[in-house]
Amino acid sequence: MEILIRDYAEAGCLLGAKIIARVVREKPDAVLGLATGRTPLRLYQELIRMHRDEGLDFSRVMTFNLDEYVGLPATHDQSYRYFMRENLFRHINIDLTRTHVPDGTAPDLHAECRSYEKKIEAAGGIDLQLLGLGRNGHIGFNEPTGSLRSRTWVKILSEQTLKDNSAVFGSLAAMPKHALTMGIGTILDARRILLLAFGPAKVRAVEHMVEGPLAAICPGSALQLHPRATVILDENSAAGLHYADHYRWIDSQKLPWQRYE
Ligand code: GLP
Questions:
Q1: For the chain, is the Cβ count within 10 Å smaller at the N or the C terminus?
Q2: Residue 133 CA: which ligand 1 atom is closest?
Q3: Are 163 and 136 in contact (CB under 8 A)?
């Protein structure tokens, strides 16, 4: 796991955008796995800026989002399809037919999950999967104790996640309690993983993910198994790490071709 600690989330997001932009420049038809939530918003703004000011070209890029709430149509302002359109897709030159978000309104959700996996496979797999981290260590909507080898499926949201995400729905009652999500096995199949976690609320989850045992109780810890996982933190989210100085040292000694900035 490559751990990159920056002073503030702002710098972390700019760094994350640089990493993604490099993937797209090196492989114009890259397959990107995308995430929602508050964490990647600034990163998406930076990708939009790079598209506008530097001509970063998304015309051949294909995307697969991690997850979607069950029952929310694409027109619902809290659906992840809506989120992606508003916060990224409509500001860049991506072909919307090449963007994928699981359909939470599909009449047969299990068939939708199976077909999502097949679409990822048919696209040649995901080149880079972007992730946030739940306060309880979840990735996508893979909640604690879910199988570390799970595939895209219907998951029940934990009470912690409902609490964390319900504000934007106005009330807990209005929030879906189920979601379709790529499984942890699906996520680990990506050729590269980029996880962002910022702020004091993520301290415990980050500590367990990076330095704790590999355990289903912290789904993010599955990244320890991945050969090419990069984790970008700010000082707040990194505050519980015992080996932060070691990560900083490694970061400072990189060879020129290993650096992103
Ligand atoms: C959400 C999403 C995750 C996201 C996480 C953290 O529920 N399903 O993909 O990474 O929770 O959200 P935030 O970035 O808003 O803290």
A1: C
A2: 10
A3: no
